[in-house]
Known about the structure:
Elements: E1 3-10, H1 20-33, E2 37-47, H2 58-67, E3 76-79, H3 82-85, H4 89-103, E4 106-109, H5 118-151, E5 163-166, E6 169-172, H6 174-189, H7 194-203, H8 216-224, E7 232-234, E8 251-253, H9 263-279, H10 283-289, E9 296-298, E10 305-310, E11 314-319, H11 320-323, E12 332-334, H12 335-351, E13 357-360, H13 366-391, H14 397-422, H15 431-442, H16 448-455, E14 459-465, E15 470-478
Amino acid sequence: MERAALYIRVSTDDQTEYSPDAQKKQLIEYAKKNDYIIDYNYIFSDEGISGRKAEIRPAFMHMISIAKTKPKPFDVILVHRFDRFARNREDSVVYKSLLRKDCDIKVISITEQLEDDKFSIILEAMLEAMAEYYSLNLADEVKKGMFEKANRGEHSGTLPLGYKLTNKILQIDDYYSAIVKEIFELFVKKDYSVLEISRYLNNKNIRTKNNTMFTTRGLKYVIQNPCYYGAHRYNYRQGSQSIANDNKDWIIIENSHEPIISKELWHKAQEKIYLSKLMSSSPKKQARKYWLSGLLRCKHCHGSMTSTIIKNKYVSYYCCNRKNGICKTPNNISLNKLGKMVIETMENDLNNNTINAKRIDDKYNPEDQNVLNLKLKTVQRKYVLANDAYLAEIDTLEEYKKKKSLIRTEEEQTLEELNKINNKIKSSFNRIKFKNNIELLKSSELTQLEKNKIIKTFVDKIVISSRDKYIKIYYYFIG
């Protein structure tokens, strides 16, 4: 007799018939009818958890790890339906393949009977696809419900500090909103760290709404929550899990309720958090992520400039060759001061018409045109060779027609590629786009990395000298 493990999964949206007890009862009955032996140590159950991602199902992952032990502890895994095992086809294929090939363990659905034949493979794939469609469609419906609530201005989830709930609408709580304002003022304007704010509030005997002391974790959540500038954030976490979703999956509804702080102050707080993360990372990572990184050159030795952290608070750039003993002229400047100089220089260049930009053609090389012209001559030569082969009775008329058709297709493709190059529009430096880019670089709402990507679309390098108070920006444009 074969040994069976049972896997049970129930998500929050399941109906009564899919309850853990109902699934377990049916699985045991099936095992008895089909002469499977059940070891009750191998009954695995995930309750109230989505099936979309296997990694967030602890019982499932525990079952897989046990299945990989030698000798194998069971021969089959019984599930109520295949969508209990996985609603994601990628997970399903990966784990079923692992179980079958590496462990010699089959997954059996007790309500969707399949035989070991080719048709069953197609049918199983169809069932899994339907389950995944249901899961994705359900997620869409949940998001629609979130949007409907947001459009009505209704709040769902944990009540944020500084607000009270009146008819499902967030209203400002005067006492706690003053604490929230103080948190942001201390963090942004007085440059307190999160730890310093925590100590400050706790020492003044200020407590949370639950009458507990403030923690750095709780304060970070407050500082990063967009609700304080008047926006609702939905789909932040994975159900009841403490794991945050990717920010691309969040639903942000602007102007949904009365703000406690300005949007500008909130974005400045996010920028500080971003910078603090960089400061705690390795120097190699830091150098790539500040908005002027990869562009700065020393006027005195033409070497690169790199960033460093001063007193664990300020970003400064210095000449790499100076540190290595090659450059003899000191050249150090703070990111804050340099950033203002760069913006001012760009605006002056635009206003005074002193932008001297070199052109860089996008994916265009004059040599490509020569290669295509040679290719066209070679292709057209094939007409002559095909004709000669037909006249010499090497090819039949049908073979000759087929060859001509293939040659014509190749000729048309080559001509099309040539036309793309010959008809390429030669663009010029776009002053309007340049001005818009400056405004984006001045924005407090963009991260350092986003600004770095923007500036690298039109700036080739920036030559500076802190001693001479010199700066020159070299621009480029793509033709």
